[in-house]
Amino acid sequence: MGGHREKDTDAALLRAVGDGDSAAMAVLYDRHAGWLHRRLTRRCADPEMVREVLQDTFVTVWRSAGSHRGQEAGGWLWTIAARRLVDARRAQERAARIETAPMEAVGAEHEPAVATPSAEERALTALEFGDVGTALDRISPELREVLRATVVDGLTTRETARLLGIPEGTVKTRARRARAELRAALARLDPTPMGGPA
Question: Which residue, 152, 173, 176, 179, is CA-closest to 161?
Fold first, then answer.
């Protein structure tokens, strides 16, 4: 069953993982864990949570590899990881609420430390929900994916190509087009020239 090499496609590896091949799982992990970890770290300042989410992601891959359809695993893996991160944050928030509720009831002097969002997390939130987020939603999906991966998540061209299952040259071309479309979308949102009347 073993003998998997770097040149094996993600689809072939996932089929083998679906059949219970742990060697294929190891190759898949080595291929994708690095960029997934970096991308999760840009979304979450808690290194322990990032490690847990990464582990949960690959446990899910092990259990559900047989259900994957498509050539490259990058987008599928990121979808799993992003969902696991949301679940982990919700669980952490619930736990924090449970911990603080009894203390508030008895008037405790010291509140437990609650992780405050990092500057990067606040910036990403502004990107998701501000004018830039609105403009991103208005550009074509394939260009938006490249911008999110390269700018928001800070992935390299090679990592983005692997994530999206496209050639590196296509990543560069789409990144240029995406920036131009984003500028145009932002201009349509706020047509007032810089320095004009408020």
Answer: 173
